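Progress report, Aim 2. The chain analyzed during this reporting quarter is listed below.
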Amino acid sequence: MDKFKHKALRRQRRRIGTRKRVTGTPERPRLAVYRSLNHIYAQVIDDLAGVTLASASTRDKGVSLSTGTGTGNALAAEAVGAAIAERAKKAGVSKVVFDRGGFKYHGRVKALADAARKAGLEF
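Predicted structure tokens for the chain:
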């Protein structure tokens, strides 16, 4: 099997295992993170209603312009974390459950989570 296919398959397995345990409710929606090579995306999701309450990414104009150094680094992830926390609070959400999406809690994912906590989200 191709090395990269195997790596993606292992991440999908970890993601499915996490999703068995983590579910977003109206009281505590799920903060889902996706990390690509060039960007990072975050959504606050109510799984019971099937609705995205807030979203932010490095592709958003306000977020990408504030980083200034690029979109695929920890500084950009911190900007996305602060933006998702602000948008979630605007939507009336203060507590979430964190879904790292099968990615290691390290680097950009950790930077996003720390910035969201610092901006006021509880998880």
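The chain has one domain: 3-118. The mean pLDDT is 93. These observations will guide the mutagenesis work planned for the next reporting period.
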